[in-house]
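Subject: design request, 166 residues
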């Protein structure tokens, strides 16, 4: 069996799920890293999964057989990203590092350890996308952070898995 390399695939607008599904049907190995995001819709906050790299996903292909046309002709795929004549391989170490930070479904996991004084970003909830500083960490994985809200430094308790190092 040929050694496989990872390549970057540009998907059509909002076509990442279709491209992933159709590439998998054809027997390709596909990696689409996702992240949890919170969006505000009217008065509610909705949690959703979005691609870590919007408009792109990774596909593993044996470089010797090089079925570029088969990949490019897949519904949902715009094109393989290339520099010159042939698509350029993404380093396997980069893909391995990304996969190590994801769960089995390809969803990015929160950082394992936070410590007092770390600069963090809130990932979900009403404070999504806010920057904060870790003030203290409770035994039940509650993290107390300091946030600048309307000119006042406010102490807020959040779950550790709702935070990401900035």
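Subject: RE: design request

Done. Sequence follows.
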């Amino acid at each position: 069996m040929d050694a496989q390399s990872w390549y970057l695939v540009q998907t059509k607008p909002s076509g990442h799920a279709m491209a992933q599904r159709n590439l998998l049907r054809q027997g390709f190995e596909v990696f689409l890293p996702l992240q949890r995001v919170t969006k505000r819709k009217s008065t509610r906050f909705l949690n959703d999964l979005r691609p870590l790299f919007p408009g792109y996903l990774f596909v593993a292909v044996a470089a010797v057989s090089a079925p570029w046309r088969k990949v490019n002709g897949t519904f949902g795929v715009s094109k393989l990203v290339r520099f010159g004549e042939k698509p350029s391989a993404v380093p396997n170490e980069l893909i391995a590092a990304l996969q190590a930070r994801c769960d089995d479904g390809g969803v990015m996991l929160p950082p394992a350890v936070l410590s007092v004084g770390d600069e963090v970003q809130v990932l979900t909830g009403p404070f999504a996308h806010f920057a904060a500083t870790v003030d203290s960490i409770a035994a039940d994985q509650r993290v107390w952070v300091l946030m600048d809200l309307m000119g006042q430094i406010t102490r807020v308790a959040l779950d550790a898995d709702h935070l990401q190092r900035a």
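The mean pLDDT is 88.
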